[in-house]
Amino acid sequence: MLIDFHCHLYDEPGYGEALAETGRNLGVDRLCIGGGDAQYGLAANAEVRRQADAYPELFVPFAQVELGVDGPTTVERYRRIGFEGLIVCAPPAPYDDQAFFPVYEAAAALEMPVVFHTGYTPPAPLDRAKGVRSVHARPVCLDTLARYFPALKIVGVGLGSPWCEEAAETMRHHANVYFDLSGDLLRRKGADFFGRLFRPAQAPLWQDEGSGNTWERVVFGSAVRHEEIASVERDYQRIFRSLALGQGDMDAVMGGTAAHLLGMTSAA
């Protein structure tokens, strides 16, 4: 099974159709599509829902939620109209600010995975007005959420770059924290970097629910335009070969873990 857990829907005529064609040509079973803020060129939630209706066998719709503006009733409404997960980015305060907790509580109760843009946030014209700071999206903020909301399915993006070690440690210690390696991260860092970062601890000082094989909580995500998805998939496969990763780990990264997060079976 091949699932792209982090796929952008751009606000361009015909983009959904082109994305669906690319996915089919690559043999992708599901693409978790999400829009976002117009200043980043992304489609609105309504268009995400429309495209999911047009390609129900392929697209899994995720709704963008604006932290500090949207509340739990918004999350509940998105679930009622068929969204299966949420996306949050560019928060006006750190992700673990208590003002955002009602959103996370609702997502956990509704079993909706939440994709968090972690790490560096690209600059945009409204950053100052919205209080956007990259430090608000440091992956260590997800540590707090994992402690307070153990039922919440937390998925960070891009391994929180440039705070990759912080992201890996957070994922290592919490069974409900996952990360993708999206964008050009795999190309920039190389196999040795990930081999060291995800190597099992030799003698942990304590055991927790997250201890064990870190690769089992890495998911395939592209976060690029549809023309570049194949390139990102090749980057994942290159890293797998370089590290001589086992077939079970590769299967988990490329679809098995995502299927679990979505409540699917691996044969679906």
Portion of residues in beta strands equals: 5-15%
Q: Compute the number of structural domains.
A: 1
CATH third-level topology: TIM Barrel
**CATH homologous superfamily label:** Metal-dependent hydrolases
Q: N- to C-terminal separation?
A: 8 Å
The radius of gyration computed from the alpha-carbon positions, rounded to a whole number of angstroms, is 17 Å
Q: Architecture, CATH level 2?
A: Alpha-Beta Barrel
Helices and strands in order:
Blueprint: E1 3-8, H1 15-26, E2 30-34, H2 45-54, E3 59-64, H3 72-80, E4 85-88, H4 101-109, E5 114-116, H5 127-130, H6 141-148, E6 154-156, H7 164-173, E7 177-180, H8 185-189, H9 191-197, E8 218-219, H10 229-243, H11 247-261
Parallel strand pairs: 1-2, 2-3, 3-4, 4-5, 5-6, 6-7, 7-8
Helix pairs in contact: 3-4, 9-10
